[in-house]
Amino acid sequence: MPRSVPFRRTLAALLLSCALVAGAIACGDSGDTSGGNAASPSVSASAEKQRLAKTRFVANAGLAAGATYQWIVKPYRAGTFKKGAEGRRLALVKAGLAGGFAYNRLQAAAKNAKGDPLLSKAVAPLTAGIESLKGLGTKLRKGEAGEGDVGAFESVIDSIKNAGKDAGAEVKDKVPSTSQLTG
Fold this sequence. Notes:
183 residues, mainly alpha
């Protein structure tokens, strides 16, 4: 048995080394010295950056929309935020966390939109609306939010979704887990 432990470690180290070498070779230069089109890599990198910007925008905006609907709009419409309602305290805490999370994800989505020319034009006018949500998470957590505050979240989310759709990046609600709200 004592000999199998060093053998396993050696084997693990060998496999890890091979994986690192293979990764370095795959990421290395192709060796093409034929003097091909020099603009080709930058155009490809630019297109890739734009594609990733849209993908990240859709992911972040979708998480914000899902959190807003699941933990702010739905409980508010169900009357869970009213004094004396069953589960009110937990609902308010979750709504406060969801509000902060949604604000953070909307900020990230606006930043991602800057990587795509069409998205940046569509989202730029909405940054003021996103900024207006800054303190609503705390307001929700304290139970001080009203119809107008919940409506503000809905309005900004709908505007972001419409801007994304107009720019070819359709946003669908994606409900984050409770651990994502706190983490």
